[in-house]
Specification:
This protein is mainly α and 275 residues long. Helix content is 67%, strand content 0%. It is built from ten helices and no strands. It starts with a helix and ends in a 16-residue tail after the last helix.
Length: 275
């Protein structure tokens, strides 16, 4: 159990810091965004270059590094969307009279290019990793991809606790494609399946004495556990916005100084009004 708690702590820290950094950078000026996008793009290239060798590394450290490589790829994908680099052909709000099917189709168009880039990048990671014994990077990307789709479908069907204030101004129109509801049919399926897979990986980790298999299963299990927790955040107010208040209350002066040469406008950062 100590090993699981250590893995959970490691994954939680990585999740907390990476999420906060993406939120923070997205609220700073364009120079910060361009610089961070370039830096993370370089990290993604390096991660993919070293991934074939990492896939042959059957050590506990190799499992942790593979997890880090997968997380870097995913952070890049999130940044490309939130910063508006890769989104979709539609950039306007959903018509109020749109049917459910129309809302789904129009909503898909808002992120179509990004969905294609996600599928492509995940496929690249799986391909580059090959058939080596260390598949933690691929498992990390696939897990995040599937749980992201699950979360987006839950938002489409209706959730109780959704904070649209986290969207940057240029993506505010996405709120019109979501629905508020006390429950939807997919939510119990999502959390049950996610919990079941996380529990299965935990059982497999506890049943082996192989350091690599133990670390690999624990890391992916912890990651899925956090993804399930994020699903619960969509339905019940836990006050989770406090976790990233340091990112959501970034100094306006920092954003202003980065954007002054481009626009000369004051960039106001807002804290979510409710969790």
């Amino acid at each position: 159990m100590i090993d699981y708690l250590l893995a959970l702590a490691t994954v939680t820290l990585a999740w907390w810091i990476s999420t906060g950094l993406v939120l923070l950078l997205n609220r700073l000026g364009s120079q910060w965004q361009r610089g961070s996008m370039l830096a993370v793009s370089v990290l993604v290239i390096l991660s993919l270059m070293y991934l074939p060798g990492r896939s042959e590394d059957r050590s506990a450290a190799g499992a942790l590094l593979g997890f880090g490589q997968g997380l870097v790829v995913w952070a890049w994908l999130e940044m490309t969307y939130l910063m508006g680099v890769i989104t979709g052909p539609r950039k306007t709000a959903c018509p109020s009279q749109a049917s459910t099917l129309q809302r789904f189709w129009l909503g898909l168009q808002t992120s179509l290019y990004h969905e294609i880039s996600v599928i492509t990048m995940v496929a690249v990671v799986v391909f580059v990793a090959g058939d080596g014994p260390n598949q933690v990077a691929a498992a990390t990307c696939v897990s995040l991809w599937l749980m992201r789709w699950s979360a987006k479908l839950n938002l489409f069907l209706g959730v109780r606790n959704y904070n649209s204030d986290w969207f940057p101004d240029h993506l505010k129109y996405l709120d019109s494609y979501t629905r508020r509801a006390s429950m939807n049919w997919l939510f119990p399926v999502s959390v049950t399946m996610g919990t079941a897979v996380a529990a299965l990986l935990l059982v497999q980790a506890m049943a082996t004495v192989d350091p690599f298999l133990r670390s690999a299963n624990l890391l992916v299990s912890a990651l899925l556990s956090l993804a399930v927790l994020e699903h619960w955040f969509l339905m019940y107010p836990f006050g989770e916005s406090v976790l990233w208040r340091w990112a959501l209350t970034a100094s306006p002066e920092a954003a202003n100084s980065a954007d002054e040469s481009d626009t000369g406008n004051v960039h106001t950062l807002r804290v979510p009004k409710h969790p």
